[in-house]
Design goal:
Elements (H helix, E strand, L loop, with lengths): L2 H4 L4 H11 L9 H13 L3 E4 L5 E5 L11 E6 L21 E4 L2 E4 L6 H15 L8 E6 L7 H4 L10 E4 L7 E6 L1 E10 L2 E3 L4 E9 L17 H16 L2 E8 L9 E8 L3 H18 L8 E7 L4 E3 L1 H13 L3 E5 L7 E13 L2 E10 L2 H16 L4 E8 L9 H14 L4 E5 L5 H7 L4 E4 L4 E2 L7 E3 H16 L5
Parallel strand pairs: 3-6, 3-7, 7-21, 8-20
Antiparallel strand pairs: 1-2, 2-6, 4-5, 5-23, 9-18, 9-19, 10-15, 11-13, 11-14, 12-13, 12-17, 16-17, 17-18, 22-23
Length: 486
């Protein structure tokens, strides 16, 4: 771990972040970071325990003079999104994140940084460890599996937490105070198909779409970024329509909450169309690059001759799948009518796998309105069922309804304006914060979300602003000193 990270100010925050980033913590494989956090709490002599789902809770009494303030919950999630560039050699299961300083930014070499939500977790750790920071009674809640299912929040039972105010430290713009978020649901389409013999006189090709920015499928969905699965499907559709292209296999995207950056397809074309196919594809590639020249300047689409396979996808099923993916909505579906510039409903076609007689298409549909969420999910479901897919709607979690009359919101607004000379942006976000889920079992808890500036979350371009972390740390300390009385 680079010493330059540990020397950054505030050192209490960056040192805890460095400690945390040395521990592998992929979603659904949090055993090591759970033990790390329990050992940390126990080393401080604080009450530390797991709940049934393996969330970690650490309790710290109020500092002298703060006993009359409302008890608070400081909350962050332990897991992180694991994404890396194709040419980066890195094992997330065994290696700590390799961080470095780039001007005002902390970055990772070729991988996600883990600032989402590592900086929030590190903040709580620094507060728990401190003997000089005034604060009310604190329950530190470290949830698991936020990134791939909100499992920790969904399974946290009522009655465990005693706090009256929850500070969620998982917002990614330091001038924003979040009071609402989107819910989500996974839409998964599957089906089988027969494999056919490769026709005589065929030529094999590999198509590669790469170089896209990727990003958070909620926070970045409105930016007009390229989706590798949709771009690949466009290429397959055109070549099938005009030259009878047949699919051998497709592998596109990875995580449901990340906009897919790469897709690779192996296909065949009749040798009689070989020259025309290559010419036509270059024209389409030029058109696509022109469309994305502003948002995706590094987009690369390569078509290279490859080995001839033995089997290809059944043409009838292939046509249906290609058309269904073309028809399936990707991106913003509806903007909020109540909050300016807020995406209400969206979908990310995150994963497309066609191989060995099986098709899998994975989507994450988000919305701050439950009825709209299921409206879009059913639209996707219908498109895929029409071509013979079995479709499952799973992992549904609720959004967080804004409370404009929140007491803690008024505290944060006043502090922010005093420290920065301007009012904060009070917003709802299109990401899946855990507040809405936690509020199901703790409906009377006053909740707020804020955090330092983090860009490129869920992609290898993830980076955290150093100056913003300093601004945020000062904000946190003042909030702790001004929690309302009981």
């Amino acid at each position: 771990m680079s010493q330059e990270i540990r020397n950054l100010e505030p050192k209490a925050l960056w040192n805890k972040f460095a400690d945390l980033n040395a521990v592998p913590r992929p979603s659904k494989k949090e055993e090591r970071v759970i033990e790390f956090m329990k050992n940390f709490g126990n080393s401080l002599g604080l009450e530390t325990f797991e709940d049934e789902i393996r969330n970690v809770i650490i309790r710290k009494p109020a500092t002298p003079g703060m006993e009359n303030r409302k008890p608070i919950v400081m909350q962050g999630h332990l897991d992180m999104v694991h994404q890396k560039n194709a040419d980066t050699v890195f094992d997330f299961d065994t290696q700590g994140i390799d961080m470095y300083v780039d001007g005002d930014w902390v970055r990772a070499r070729g991988t996600t940084l883990g600032a989402d939500n590592g900086l929030g977790v590190a903040t709580i750790m620094a507060i728990l460890e401190s003997t000089a920071i005034p604060h009310p009674a604190i329950e530190a809640l470290f949830t698991i599996d936020e990134e791939t299912g909100m499992t920790g929040a969904l399974n946290l039972k009522g009655g465990i937490l005693q706090g009256q105010i929850l500070l969620n430290l998982d917002t990614e713009e330091d001038d924003e105070i979040d009071i609402g978020c989107a819910g989500g649901i996974d839409v998964t389409a599957t089906r089988t198909y027969h494999e056919e013999e490769v026709p005589e006189g065929s030529v094999g090709y590999t198509i590669t779409v790469k170089g896209l920015n990727g990003g958070h499928s909620g926070m970045d969905i409105h930016k007009g970024l390229g989706n590798a699965n949709k771009i690949m499907n466009r290429l397959l559709f055109d070549a099938f329509e005009n030259f009878g292209l047949q699919i051998v296999e497709v592998n596109g995207g990875s995580l449901r909450n990340a906009i897919p950056r790469e897709s690779v397809a192996k296909v065949i074309i009749s040798q009689m169309f070989d020259e025309a196919y290559v010419y036509d594809m270059q024209e389409i590639i030029a058109d696509i690059k022109a469309e994305y020249k502003t948002t995706e300047p590094n987009l690369s689409i390569e078509i290279v001759k490859g080995d001839l396979p033995e089997k290809v996808m059944d043409l009838g099923v292939q046509e249906g799948i290609i058309r269904a993916i073309y028809a399936a909505h990707n991106g913003v579906y509806r903007m909020s009518a109540d909050m300016a510039d807020l995406v209400e409903t969206s979908n990310n076609i995150a994963r497309v796998v066609i191989k060995d007689g099986e098709v899998l298409i994975g989507c994450l549909t988000r919305s701050s309105v439950e009825s709209s969420k299921f409206d879009l999910a059913n639209s996707l479901r219908s498109a895929f069922e029409l071509v013979g897919c079995e479709v499952e709607l799973t992992g549904s979690y609720p959004g967080w309804t804004p409370n404009v009359n929140s007491e803690i919101l008024e505290v944060l607004k006043e502090i922010y304006e005093k420290q920065n000379g301007e009012q904060p942006k009070v917003v709802a976000c299109h990401a899946g914060l855990e507040c809405g889920i936690l509020g199901t079992n703790y409906p009377d808890m006053d909740m707020i979300s804020f955090g330092p500036t983090i860009h490129g979350a869920h992609s290898p371009d993830e980076r955290a602003s150093i100056s913003s972390a300093q601004k945020y740390w000062k904000f946190v300390l003042e909030i702790l000193s001004n929690i309302p009385v009981k």
